[in-house]
Write a structure and sequence with these properties.
17 helices, 10 strands, binds (R)-mevalonate, globular, 3 domains, four-stranded antiparallel sheet, Alpha-Beta Plaits
Amino acid sequence: MARTSRFPGFYKVTVPERRALVSESTGVPVDHMANAFGSGGLNPEAADKFVENVLGVYALPLGVALNVRVNGHDHVVPMVVEEPSVVAAASNAAKMVRAGGGFQVEIDEPIMISQVQLIEVDDLEGGPAAILARKGELIARANKSIPGLVQRGGGVRDIEVRRIGTPADRMLVVHFLVDCRDAMGANLVNTVAEAMSDELASLVKGRPGLRILSNLCDRRCVRVTCRVPVAELATDDMAGPEVADGIVNASRFAELDPYRAATHNKGIMNGVDAVVIATGNDWRAVEAGAHAFAARDGVYKPLAIWRREGDFLVGRLEVPMALGTVGGTLRVHPAARLALEMLSIAHAGELAAIAASVGLASNLAAVRALATDGIQRGHMALHARSVAVAAGAIGGEVERVAACIVEARDITLEGAKRALELLRQSGESELAGSGVYARARRVDDA
Ligand code: MEV
């Protein structure tokens, strides 16, 4: 099978059948998926090497977003998330985006900022110039502290000096702009900051303060655009153009109100974080960067906005995205490694593009639901499926039991057990709409 991310009816088949489909498309062997994803990919002995005071491991579901096309390439995107409907919503929205050609993404070079704070500075006026006059030597010396990265084609690209606070603070901040290639880069840029702080302090007649990366990595952004044909947005009750206008209204609300912008951005991070976690990256770093970037002009703003352009709804997202495809957790976590293998990407920038695209898809799904039915209806339908599974439904029974308890507005474990029993007894292929369940329920309730 050619590489595709389109699998109609994927949700209806069993977990082993889904693995087989994904294996055909991505080339990742089914037994590798069974080993790495079977129970979270980590045992307590391995976990004991990650963090301290380990008692065990804590698993979360790993699903895949479908229909995702980024810069012309299809990806089956692993997502780790505990919230029902996030994976389905992203897949559904990605399908609408696909109808308009998929996500187009521009990716910045992987530049991280290493900060050296200089305190008790005696030469506030001349200090910045003294540092910048020696830029070449300082960059060369800084690069000596990270020879592996330099060998891989990365390294320090530039130095900037900032004065912050008032003269009474006597403070300067030096930024090393470090190209981290395929690494997220936290350790690398911390190494640079620690290696260079004494020399910088002596140049400005001050003392070194903090030496650490900045998570506001605004030189390492991705910009995603998608153009959805408005007809794709239609629901059973609303025409496409009406839905598109509702989504633009949702965008304006977020642009005008930080209270709404926070929730709008949470919807974006639903998708982003799930990909970041699945691929073994630091989601706290991505969250910190995203929200700091959202507030960069002094007012908290939405990371993505939506506009109507003729027959298209156009979404645009810009967000810093510091992700790695080498080092860190990836070295030791088999599930994270396999998740990355499934994506089949050439460099970390591509991973950033995919994570951000799934973020924009999640946002589209959320604002479309909010502009139409509200989100509870979709949530309930999905919740019904997990209740059906908890009641013992298997294979095709899951959908039938779920449809039935949704129709009867009885999404409870008891309701699902009753529906399952009836389904099995009656031999009816569909209970929903057949009236069997409703009649039986009336008898039970009486
Ligand atoms: C829920 O996880 C996310 C939403 O609240 C996002 C939004 O309101 O845009 C639905």
